[in-house]
């Protein structure tokens, strides 16, 4: 496999570190951290998880809470294990975009601190969508849709 031209200009130690599987895993773990921490928090405070679903108008709240927990944990596990990483990354990208439009509707808030914080959160989540899209693109490029081995 040939490296893109910009990587050819990096010093050898940087090329090796970039290709290091541990670095990739740590980057993916950081990307998935909110999707691991969130469900664990919901598991240990299930009444709070139900209240959160009710707050956002998702009914039946217990079903949505369990669904979010299972979805976030399983998609994160697939990404970290490298099993159909592209599909799991796209699923989390779509989920994050939908959740962002449900939870961070900054345009409906009056000017001020709350609106500013919601707007910052909104665009941070859009950044996560972009990162998951890049993970999917890279995985498809490296392994193809089967999730098994390099493509030709």
From TrEMBL:
Q: Is Transmembrane given among the entry's keywords?
A: yes
- Indicate how the chain sits in the lipid bilayer: Multi-pass membrane protein
Cellular component GO terms held in the UniProt record: membrane
Record protein name field: DoxX family protein
The record's section on Pfam families has: DoxX (PF07681)
Transmembrane ranges?
A: 60-80, 87-107
The listed locations are: Membrane
Q: Which organism is it from?
A: Rhizobium etli 8C-3
Q: Which UniProt keywords apply?
A: Membrane, Transmembrane, Transmembrane helix
Where does it primarily localize?
Answer: membrane
